[in-house]
Amino acid sequence: MSALAFVSGSFVREHLRTPVTMVMLAAIPVFFVLIFASVLGQFAGALGGTLAGGAASAISAGWAAAFLCGSLAFFQVSSSRGADRRLASAGMGAGRVALARITAAVALGVAVSATAYLTLWARSGIAHPAHAAAAILAFAFIYIGIGALIGAFVSGALEGSLLVVLVFSVDVFSGPAMTSTGGLLAYGPTRDAAKLLIAAGTGQGSPGGEWAAVTATVAAALAAAFGAFWLAARSRT
Amino acid sequence: MSAPATAAVPIAGSATSTGAADGADSRRVLRVVGVRKSFGRGVWPWRRHRDVLKGASLEVSAGELVGLVGENGSGKSTLMQVIVGLESSDGGEVQRPSRLGYCPQTPMLWEKLTVDEHFRLYARAYGLDEHASQATVADLLGELHFERYRSYRVEQLSGGTRQKLNLALALMHNPELLLLDEPYSGFDWETYLRFWEMSERRRDEGMGILIVSHFLSERERLDRVYTLTDGETVAG
């Protein structure tokens, strides 16, 4: 087994051995798709938006993946900063530690997305299954970048997790179809992924421009995540 | 700070910046010259800087057990971290070998991973052959008497056993230079004595060891002592 695979596997095991994480991994997608979706629809109605029904359920699966991945990525950086840096300076190198961290984060992101996807499928079915899967993964990967970036710059667990929640909340309520004007922020990080997911959940097609934008955003988020993991593990010489 | 950053130049396998090496130079495994470090607190415009190291200098040769003493907050751990590369410096120079072992004051470990998993991760980091590392690990587990905890996660270990793992990770690649930052906190008396036996044996085998200590009673075990006072080191 290569060093990268071994180190990544160790980092994944760290999370799988946390019982609360495992419970959250199963409970949050269920909560989001079954309960949060209808609340989100009510908020959208109050704000003059059109989000409701299948669209709200679909986007809630994305939000579940985003929330879990953002939190996991934040704690990957904040709780292991010292140990990762020591391993890097012992000869593993910050680049390889960062690569192992991002590999672990992506593996967890895929697992989280699969849970969210299955919950959505069981709840309401999915009109465009492949499109929905890609869009939920995009939510997960974008929030890996956000969580890791916050972890790299905010060392306190409480402050950092609150910041993840704040970014998440602003992103949720600025999403497409949330208000009569189409959202509070025109360029939220998951805006294009949300459009894809709403379209996939309600059986509509998505224009190529949205796919290109989502691909670019995911690539930028994963690059940012790598940078954040590297920053946390690097030597100071 | 606008001063140049520390230049960490490996001693082993490359020329030092001190020119022609005499007998003492050839045995030297650590040379620290005029290292400065300050930390900032608060946000602008109320940001204040505190100078922790104002020109710390020291040397360690192969086969030497050297102490670094000083009051709490005098900058001993900061100096160790600058030597290892975990902290940047604001100026000065550090020359050290690439094969060094570092045992931090507070164990830097992964709570959810087992003792064995830590050894396997560090074996990869040090580039050790798997079979050779297994033999070394078995020896260290025996020396420090914690074989039975191999399959335990760090979160399940007592403070003293965590510290044993912390120390063993620094030793498993037989480093040229060993940096120990109060490595015995949490040790019981027997382990404490065994720790000193281990250190003295490795010193006699040629390892250079720098140890942060604050017990006067330990001074007789040390070949030389540096005292860190007001950000500067004083020999003797």
Characterization of this structure:
The complex is a heterodimer of chains A (237) and B (236). Chain A is mostly helical. Chain A has one domain. Chain A is built from nine helices and no strands. Chain A has helices at 3-16, 19-46, 53-78, 81-92, 94-124, 129-153, 157-173, 191-201, 208-233. In chain A, helix 2 (19-46) packs across helix 5 and helix 6 (129-153) runs antiparallel to helix 8 (191-201). In chain A, 54% of the residues are buried. The mean pLDDT of chain A is 88. Chain B is of the alpha/beta class and 236 residues long. Chain B contains six helices and ten strands, in the order E-H-E-E-E-H-E-E-H-H-H-E-H-E-E-E. In chain B, strand 9 (224-229) and strand 10 form a beta hairpin. The radius of gyration of chain B is 18 Å and the shape is globular. Residues 1-10 and 12-21 of chain B have low confidence and may be disordered. Chain A binds chain B through residues 3, 6-7, 10, 13-15, 17-18, 79-80, 82-83, 85-92, 235-237, and chain B through 5-6, 8, 81-82, 84-88, 94, 102, 104, 106, 108-113, 117, 120-122, 124-127, 153, 169.
- As a percent range, the share of strand residues of chain A is under 5%
In the predicted model, the low-confidence regions of chain B spanning at least 5 consecutive residues are: 1-10, 12-21
Biggest sheet features of chain B: 6 strands, mixed
Structural class of chain B: alpha/beta
**Overall mean pLDDT of chain B:** 87
- The proportion of residues forming helix of chain A, as a percent range, comes to over 70%
Could you give the count of β-strands of chain B? 10
What is the 3D form of chain B? globular
Order of helices and strands of chain B: EHEEEHEEHHHEHEEE
For the record, give the distance between the C-alpha atoms at the N and C termini of chain B, rounded to a whole number.
31 Å
Number of continuous helical runs of chain A = 9
Radius of gyration of chain B, CA atoms, in whole angstroms:
18 Å
Whole-number tally of structural domains of chain A: 1
Q: What share of the residues of chain B does DSSP label as strand, in percent?
A: 25-35%
**How would you describe the shape of chain A?**
elongated
Number of strands of chain A: 0
Radius of gyration of chain A: 18 Å
